[in-house]
Amino acid sequence: MTDSxxxxxxFRDVLGHFPTGVTVVTGLxxxxxxxxxxIGSFVSVSLDPPLVGFLPGKKSRSWPAIAESGSxxxxxxxxxxxxxxxxxxxEPADGESKFEGVDWTPAGSGSPILPGVIGWIDxxxxxxxxxxxxxxxxxxxxxxxxxxDVGNAMIFFRGKVAKIDMPSA
Length: 169
Ligand SMILES: Cc1cc2nc3c(=O)[nH]c(=O)nc-3n(C[C@H](O)[C@H](O)[C@H](O)COP(=O)(O)O)c2cc1C
Hints:
This protein has 3 helices and 12 strands.
C-alpha cells in the first residue's frame, strides 16, 4: 500500500485504537492572556537533558499564541476531568476564553496549572519542527510535580474518555 491509498477516516480509526493519556498544554500570549489545547500526543523524550514533546496541528489557534511566550505547561488530567478535556478541545463561544471560570495558578513560567491535575510539567520551547500537517514541539523541562494523592488516570481510546482502574497500593 502506498501512503496515498490511506484514507484519513481509516487512519484516525486505526490510530484511535492506540490508547493515550490526556493532557492540556497551556501558556500565555505576549499580552498575558491564557490559552490551552487538549493534547494526546504528549511524549517523554529525553532524561538528560530533560525533554518532553507534543504535536499541535498547524491549524491550532492556541499554539501560535502560546509560542509567543517561549514557554508552556503540560497538565496531566486525572479520571473525572472530562469537562477540562472537552473544554480545551473546542473553540470557545465568540469573544469568550477557554479559561472562563477556571481557577488556575501560574507555574514558574507563568503558564497555567489547571485545578485538580495529577501532574504538571513546565517547559521552555527547545525546538519546533514541521511534521506533515502538525509541528513536533520539543520542550526543556524547567519544573515539574505530581499530586500527592493521585487517583485514577484519564485515557482516551476509540474517541472516548475512559479511565484506568489502578489497584490500590
Ligand atoms: C483526547 C484528545 C486529544 C487530542 N490531541 C491532540 C493532539 O495531540 N494534537 C492536536 O493538534 N490536537 C489534538 N486534539 C484536538 C485539539 O484539542 C482541538 O483541535 C482543539 O480545538 C485545538 O484548539 P486550538 O485551535 O485552540 O489550538 C485532541 C483532542 C482530544 C479530545
